[in-house]
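Practice problem: predict the structure.
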Amino acid sequence: MGLFSWLGRIFKNSAPISSPKTLDEMLELLGGMSESSAGVTVTPETAARHSTVYSCVKIISETVAQLPCVLYQRINDEDDTRLRAKNHYLYSLLHDTPNDFMTAFEFWRFMTAAKAMRGMGCAYKNMVGSKVIELIPIAPDSIAENWNSDGSHDFDVIFADGRAEKVDPKYIFCIKGMTLDGRTAISPIKYTAEMIGLSIAAQSHTARFFKNGARPAGILKHSSALKPETVKELKESWQEAHGGANAGKIAVLHGGMEYQPITMSPEDSQLLELMGYNRTEICGIFGVPPWLVGAIEKTSSWGTGLEEQVRGFVKFTINPDLVGIQQRIWKDLLSTPEKKRYYAEFLTEQLLKGDIKTRNEAYKAALGGTQHPGYMVPNEIRKLENLPPLEGGDELFRPKSDGKVNNDEQQTEA
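Answer:
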């Protein structure tokens, strides 16, 4: 039995897997591998060992994971009044723990990391009737999406216990990255294998260079030929006098000896420039500003201050991921009647919160003053600062009456 016929029989209800026609097709079938022109086979695993790739995926996944995912219920469509739907069965799954062995942070970190590396992150929906009671993560190598000619699709899944099944899409919760056909998500690692492979090759070359002792700091020259024994004794005595803890001490040369330091060659300088360039390019692949992975030699165009740079990162990199997850929750985890009343949202206030001085100025304007009415009550502000409510803190300030009004009274904007 051929290898690919055997692979086809793993999935009992699926069509046989046809033999690949090219090396790239075979590598993709066996794990999404891609051969780069630098001679490096790039897989999600080898790419994750690259410091910049690892840092980018870690930053994105942990930034998303730390944000609370809250299920809301619409109360009034006219003014968009909403309440946290704490009594809904999905609230705890999304906000606290999606299964009995993961926290919400761990789950969203896995889903986002899988999407960043493989193009999609998937979980199995354990359901009782139409109710989702668990979200079980599926290893990226254990799931494949199949699209049929009639537009239908399903998933081939290998479960943790070794079972291989064809699964209906209604049991799969999947967040996807960019697609080129509107259906199949592309793997960022596969599509940028050339750049990542070049960077891995440069990093490996540098590691081997230092493993082999790199290059000496300098050489000792003499105008005449020396006997091998003399050279050996001279080398040992020099190392003993000026090596290790004695490095940097004044050296005394005699007998016509001359010390010549070895400077960095143009090739070494170009290698360092290439590694810096590759690091910036990899950051661009994942949408992470270089300064977040330690590339501080480059000036940032994300903003002039740290606060503005963080806002740019959240707006252009994190927010698209959040919107995609929120819409998938609405589409795949809520029933048709529930979609009219419920939706999920990640809270980003903690990421966008400014320093204490900036917050105080914003809160002062929100409470209102002599020139304009307030649009927040004191207890709303105290809640944002994790402070307990105060008695009488739910009244809104209105300057025209030189007093306070209740929230349910109609306000006139100044």
